[in-house]
Amino acid sequence: MSGVGENQLISIVPDELKFLFELEKQSYCDLKVSNKTENYVAFKVKTTSPKKYFVRPNTGVIQPWDSCIIRVTLQAQREYPPDMQCKDKFLLQSTVVPPHTDVDELPQDTFTKDSGKTLTECKLKVSYISSSTTQRSSESGATNGDGTGSETISTIQRLKEERDAAVKQTQQLQHELEMAKKRRKDSGNGLSLKLAALVGLIGLIIGFILKLTLASSPT
């Protein structure tokens, strides 16, 4: 097991997940995972609170010297955590896989420690940023005239815009998933109707042949 944010296979930026925390609103944090080797590397993201976070992709394969973005979305919460302290943690496991391996081809025991493979791990902490706290800091900075206030306001605005964009993207993905399910259902119904029509047509042909056979038979 390796330290926070980096091991001999991959590097992770940032090394801590920070979320702008507001009640009844989603927030997200992007992680850039880079493959530092000439091998294909598979990864898997785990968390101590899987019901609170939406991770996409949570499993993947990174080509040599390539990278990918993992988006971790904090689901809307109904209450503030005590003292705004978060004890949630994330674990990113990685291991070398054969060249040109696709994520759908990964064996079920790929990330099992007793599978005989070398498995490396990175731990990531989680912290929450309160909008009210940052607002007070910005006001204090503006009063002191040190320029920190405007920077903090800009950061808050950016985080809110990114959160809103994440919410829209999540809703769009949910809509596309529903449409895909509907298309599969409609396709299945269409196939059933075509099959029934084909069976009926075959029945008519067989009946017609039998009729001709009987009509041509000597009495």
From TrEMBL:
PROSITE patterns: MSP
Gene Ontology CC annotation, any one: endoplasmic reticulum membrane
Coiled coil: 156-183
Keywords in alphabetical order: Coiled coil, Membrane, Transmembrane, Transmembrane helix
UniProt entry tagged with the keyword Cytoplasm: no
GO biological process: endoplasmic reticulum membrane organization; endoplasmic reticulum-plasma membrane tethering
Signal sequence, renumbered to the chain: none
Span of domain MSP: 9-129
Entry's transmembrane regions: 191-210
Family: Belongs to the VAMP-associated protein (VAP) (TC 9.B.17) family.
Stated name of the protein: MSP domain-containing protein
